[in-house]
Amino acid sequence: MSITLPEVLIIQPLMPQLDEKLTQHFHCHRLYEYADPALFLQRQGKSIQAIVTRGDVGVENTLLEQLPACKAIAVFGVGTDRIDLSTTKARQIQVSITKNILTDDVADLALGLTLAFSRKLLQYDQFARSGQWETQGPVLSSKVSGKKLGIAGLGAIGLAIARRAEAFGMEVAYTARSAKTTPYRRCDNLEQLAAFSDFLVLALPGSAENQHIVDRNVLKALGADGVLINVARGNVVNEADLITALQQGVIKGAALDVYPQEPVINPALRQLENVILMPHIASATFETREQMANNVLENLLSYFSTGKIISPA
Ligand code: NAP
């Protein structure tokens, strides 16, 4: 007796362990492997019941239109900025995210970058490695304790960043759309938060409303002693304004994990010495990625056995 497995579409490559797990339970179609994806969708789109995608990839509405039977999307990540949630809601498509799994790692990176920038960790490594120490003493760096850290977006990640910053003796303030019950000071808008901050950390979604929310005015308010840390999404920052601000000393520096055109990084950014560049690795630990993979599988198994996903967006 042959068993018919649910048909699942994988849009972009996933980590191999997750791909293997999915293959054990579902009939997986990998869109990126088809020479003619349009032809595949035309012939078999109607039989696809669920999608697996990554936060940085999302799902285009034009693709969803070709999958009339699709009723579940499992996202490997927490960002839903590349999925039109009003369309999924209207079509009663359930969207799952890997909620509460990567929060600590992203917050760790935000604080790691704050420390790395302030304490010149990358420069000191270069200084020691190159043998320069044999002929001269190292320059001084700046303390983080006692400094002000502003968090744009006090959600799960923002709050985890706040707690870590507090433990480092930093003063914390934030912006969010709605008031939160926290001991931290709330600023009315991003410019006010930037003016408060020595370190302005972005932890808000890259939704359409937040596109380029960090512009020349916010950077001017952050000022010549301020540092921008972006662990959110590249589109939240107006990159041209950021590059100008970094080149002209409008702000002191930046540490970035995310970019508008990943994996391509603007060459102007790569040439600057007052930036730390990470290749979008905030959640890239063995432990977290394994839990994220399990979450995607569990959401789909739950959907196909009970009709409900377990960690909705
Ligand atoms: P979350 O719990 O939904 O929190 C998002 C917060 O942002 C909410 O508090 C929300 O306010 C606030 N917000 C939204 N728009 C805002 C605005 N215009 N001004 C001020 N605050 C605003 O999400 P999360 O789990 O913390 O994740 C945050 C984002 O981090 C994700 O959307 C994703 O893009 C990014 N991320 C990046 C990585 C990485 O690898 N670098 C990994 C994971 C996540 P309200 O509570 O009032 O709605």
UniProtKB/TrEMBL annotation:
Protein source organism: Pantoea phytobeneficialis
Family: Belongs to the D-isomer specific 2-hydroxyacid dehydrogenase family.
Annotated InterPro entries: D-isomer_2-hydroxyacid_DH, D-isomer_2_OHA_DH_cat_dom, D-isomer_DH_NAD-bd, NAD(P)-bd_dom_sf
Record-linked SUPFAM superfamilies: Formate/glycerate dehydrogenase catalytic domain-like, NAD(P)-binding Rossmann-fold domains
Start and end residues of each D-isomer specific 2-hydroxyacid dehydrogenase catalytic domain: 9-309
Keyword Cell membrane tagged: no
Top-level taxonomy: Bacteria, Pseudomonadati, Pseudomonadota, Gammaproteobacteria, Enterobacterales
GO cellular component: cytosol
GO MF, any single term: NAD binding
Top-level taxonomic group: Bacteria
Record protein name field: 2-hydroxyacid dehydrogenase
